[in-house]
Design goal:
Layout lengths: L10 E2 L14 E5 H4 L5 E6 L8 E5 L4 H5 L4 E5 H7 L14 E7 L2 E6 L5 E2 L6 H12 L7 H6 L7 E11 L3 E5 L11 E6 L3 E12 L3 E10 L7 E4 L19 E3 L3 E6 H17 L6 H15 L10 E5 L6 E6 L5 E3 L2 E4 L5 E7 L7
Parallel strand pairs: 1-5, 2-4
Antiparallel strand pairs: 2-5, 3-4, 3-6, 6-7, 7-8, 9-12, 10-11, 10-16, 12-13, 13-21, 14-20, 15-19, 16-18, 17-18, 20-21
């Protein structure tokens, strides 16, 4: 429904002091009759607009002639509308194309979606929250389809694979860990399978999400150039795949600083020695803020189109060693994540993959 002529300009009113329910809610268009109390909220819909967040609200006494006059419409922060009618907080995150009718009766205050007839009585979640909850249920299963793993590193409109560089495995014993919280400690996860001693490329899959922004959907350690024909969950040291789900078989590693890495056990020890030495020489300082933040920023400057401003990955050469360690952000943040071995036709390890996100949710 075309409510305003393209040649007309809405009148903006001064924003009064209102309680802030949603940070960065943006402006919306509201009938002045609602704001001055001569009508009550009746219609609320959201359209694509270069202005504000697209929400438009009409009162129960507003006529077409009334709303066609731009002098009768005001541009206000959406929080202003929430202050007038708190129930509008429930529908803020509904998508473009939403058309609602407000009701208030003995059963309470609610909206009816005129497109579906559905009553809306609870707060609609942010799309990112919905995606996060679905993703949380998706992670750490015993296995997924081979198509899922392969799709993670196929270039598409949403996904962009990128090889950061090589990391070193002088012992071939693989550990998975949050490098700032657990690498080199007793809490990192040692894997049962070992890989040949050598240096291997680390590839990440960058997800350009309209919901969550730029994120790393998955990472993989490329062991050889053969194509995996099956995947299996990476079991911790001392456990086999048949032990999956049994008590004590922890098939995941924890992330508490939003970072993850593949590491060799020997490199992890050298890293721990370096961090301990640095902290002893810099009492009271924070290892991220006072050391790693600058390095991540430099990494961002080298690849600004592939990272957020604070940096999403870092190739670190451990001081006083020849070892390289690669860190990367873990999808949508802290949590628990599992690794999966990709096995070639000969049953040999071709790659190790850590899925952080199911990109279809985002």
């Amino acid at each position: 429904m075309e409510l305003f002529s393209k040649n007309k300009k809405e009148t903006k009113v001064e924003k009064s002091e209102v309680k802030q329910y949603i940070t960065g809610a943006g402006d919306c268009i509201v009938s002045k009759s609602i704001l001055n109390g001569t009508s009550k909220l009746r219609w609320l819909f959201r359209e694509h607009s270069e202005f504000g967040n697209g929400w438009i609200a009409f009162g129960d006494t507003d006529t077409q002639e009334y709303v066609d006059n731009p002098k009768n419409m005001a541009i206000v922060d959406f929080n202003t509308l929430i202050n007038v009618e708190p129930t509008t907080l429930n529908i803020f995150y509904m998508p473009i194309g939403t058309d609602l009718e407000f009701h208030s009766n003995k059963s309470g205050k609610y909206f009816i979606d005129t497109n579906t007839g559905k009553e809306i009585r609870e707060q609609v979640k942010h799309p990112a929250q919905i995606a996060f909850e679905k993703n949380l249920k998706f992670l750490n299963h015993e296995n997924y389809s081979i198509e899922f793993f392969q799709s993670l590193f196929q270039r598409s409109e949403k996904l962009e694979p990128f090889i950061i560089g090589e990391t070193d495995f002088p012992s071939g014993e693989v550990v998975l860990a949050d490098p700032l919280a657990y690498l080199g400690s007793e809490y990192m996860t040692y894997l049962e399978r070992k890989i040949p001693v050598g240096s291997y490329s680390v590839e990440i899959s960058i997800c350009h999400s309209k919901i969550a922004g730029l994120r790393i959907a998955a990472s993989r350690l490329i062991i050889n150039d053969k194509k995996p024909i099956k995947y299996e969950i990476a079991m911790p040291k001392g456990k086999k795949c048949k032990d999956f789900g049994k008590s004590g078989a922890w098939t995941f590693f924890g992330v508490d600083t939003g970072l993850a890495c593949f590491s060799d056990a020997k490199v992890a020890k050298e890293y721990s020695n370096f961090i301990t030495k640095w902290q002893n020489e810099n009492p009271g300082k924070n290892k991220y803020n006072d050391y790693f933040a600058t390095l991540f920023q430099k990494s961002h400057e080298m690849h600004p189109n592939l990272q957020n401003k604070n940096g999403n990955f870092l190739l670190l050469k451990l001081p006083q060693t020849s070892y390289r360690l690669i860190m990367f952000t873990s999808g949508i943040g802290d949590g628990i994540y599992s690794g999966y071995w990709g096995l070639d036709a000969d049953g040999e390890v071709a790659e190790l993959v850590i899925p952080f996100m199911n990109p279809t949710y985002f």
